[in-house]
From TrEMBL:
Designated name of the protein: DUF4147 domain-containing protein
Domain called MOFRL-associated: residue spans: 35-272
InterPro entries per the UniProt record, alphabetical: GK-like_C_sf, GK_N_sf, MOFRL, MOFRL_assoc_dom, MOFRL_protein
Residue ranges of every copy of the MOFRL domain listed in the record: 357-461
PANTHER family, alphabetized: GLYCERATE KINASE (PTHR12227)
Gene3D superfamilies on file: Glycerate kinase, MOFRL-like N-terminal domain, MOFRL domain
Length: 480
């Protein structure tokens, strides 16, 4: 087996939706080119139009949906008075557009909330904001809830549920304001809390999350079309589970805030305490009548992107090794582990002999210290890797599949052992940037940021580590 050379042709010519805007400046070597091709193929494979082409069909007025586990469910469209689309998330606009392509005039209409719009004819694609909830997201959500509430027993509601919906779909519970939700979301994201913990709070501060949308749409038949951006693909976590049972309680939400030392806003604390005292009903649980007419289908996940990237690696003569589709932990620490595995491949041929491509998905976190800087989990991962790399035969790339890493305008970055030295930054300066959660300026100085713009999908993070193993660096450590 041989690795890729500059004359090889092993690209995926099916890319139609995802473009790395600054790709030509990032492809410094064939290994960089391969890493970026793996990234692009992975994101493209998870795009809603590609996903629905593979998993949804309409024939003789029968809608067939095939889940990632291979099971197929069929719905007789003629048995419903109206077919309505609702939902939200980063990829909801593109999912709505793909549904129009397949269902055409069988659709009665609909509305979804997104920050990545796509042109549609029947379905309203309404604006929202991510990663923090906004007033315009609230206004858009009112329309979604209006349509869901108007659905009757003989109607079919297709719920587009994708990553990002927790921020984009906004319906504050009780007397809470959007500012209250924004503040507690910011505090939670900075704390390093897991997505499950964050969502336990979100669900109990919302009228749409934690089964709320299913409750509003009942007694209609509700069919969830889900693109998962969460580790383990728990459908109750994606977009905070708007049509899924909620196993968490008001007490769980309060415990999360206490665990991470989050003291406010006062309105949120009071709302959760009143709920814990029984003054507000709990979110609906498994077995509740709310879910009698609800079925959810997982159509794509991190594995979808990883499998496509692995296919590119194989076509290029590299052995792909999937480390895990559910990586979690502190971004900087996870990066050190990935680099150590790549170094072991070079030194011993374990766990895979180079030329190889190590792949992982999942969601790492960043515990923000002080005021923090500019960056996101993927940028922290790559900057940490840049501080560890000493062998030029290893290239490390990491991106957020929605094209937006944290509250920034970039997807992630790509580095090798020469990136730091070439930037003119001192090792100590880069290490300080990492410690201060200020990865983006350092990676910008290195010229290693990956810019895709919104990708139309969201299946969490995708990490690609190319291990060439065909000669090169002497392994010397130039750090000081």
């Amino acid at each position: 087996m041989t690795g890729r050379d500059s004359d090889s042709d092993c690209t995926d010519d099916r890319h139609a939706h995802v473009t790395i805007e600054n790709r030509s400046t990032l492809e410094r070597t064939p290994a960089h080119e391969l890493a970026l091709e793996c990234v692009t193929a992975g994101l493209e494979a998870a795009h809603p139009e590609r996903v629905l082409d593979e998993r949804l069909a309409v024939e003789d007025d029968v809608l067939s949906i095939r889940d990632v586990d291979g099971g197929t469910t069929r719905y007789e469209l003629a048995s419903y008075d109206d077919v309505v689309v609702v939902g939200g998330g980063n990829a909801a606009g593109h999912l709505a557009r793909a549904l129009e392509t397949h269902l055409g005039d069988r659709l009665s209409g609909g509305a979804v909330v997104t920050d990545d719009p796509a042109p549609t004819d029947l379905i309203e694609v309404l604006p929202g904001d991510h990663p923090f909830p906004s007033e315009r997201g609230r206004e858009s959500t009112r329309r979604v809830l209006e349509l869901a509430d108007g659905a009757g027993e003989d109607d079919l509601v297709l719920a587009c549920i994708t990553g990002g919906g927790s921020a984009l779909v906004v319906a504050p519970a009780g007397s809470l304001s959007v500012d209250d939700l924004r503040t507690v979301t910011d505090d939670l994201l900075r704390s390093g809390a897991s997505i499950d913990e964050i969502n336990a709070v979100r669900k109990h501060c919302s009228a749409v999350k934690g089964g709320g949308l299913a409750d509003v749409a009942s007694p209609a038949t509700v069919v969830g079309l889900v693109l998962s951006d969460v580790v383990g693909d728990d459908l109750g976590v994606v977009s905070s589970g708007p049509i899924s049972p909620d196993p968490t309680t008001y007490a769980d939400a309060l415990a999360v805030l206490e665990r991470y030392g989050i003291d406010g806003p006062d309105a949120v604390l009071e709302h959760l305490r009143r709920g814990d005292r029984g003054e507000f009903p709990e979110t609906p649980v498994t077995g509740a009548a709310t879910f009698d007419g609800v079925t959810s289908h997982l159509l794509a996940s991190a594995t979808t992107a990883i499998d496509a990237a692995a296919g590119i690696a194989t076509d290029c003569g590299y052995d792909p090794l999937v480390l895990s589709s559910g990586i979690r932990g502190e971004s900087s620490e996870v990066a050190r582990v990935h680099v150590a595995i790549a170094e072991e491949c070079l030194a011993t041929g374990n766990p895979v002999t180079p030329p190889a491509v190590l792949l992982s998905g999942g969601e790492t976190t960043v515990s923000v210290t002080g005021d923090g800087g500019t960056g996101g989990p993927n940028q922290e991962f790559v900057l940490s890797a840049a501080l560890e790399l000493t062998d030029e035969e290893i290239v490390v790339a990491s991106v957020d599949s929605d094209g937006i890493d944290g509250p920034t305008d970039v997807a992630g970055a790509i580095v090798d052992s020469s990136s730091l030295a070439a930037s003119g930054l001192e090792f100590g300066e880069a290490r300080t940037a990492l410690a201060e959660n200020d990865a983006q300026p350092a990676l910008e100085a290195m010229g290693t940021l990956v810019r895709t713009g919104p990708t139309g999908t969201n299946v969490n993070d995708l990490r690609v580590v190319v291990v060439d193993g065909e000669g090169g660096g002497d392994g010397s450590d130039s750090r000081s």
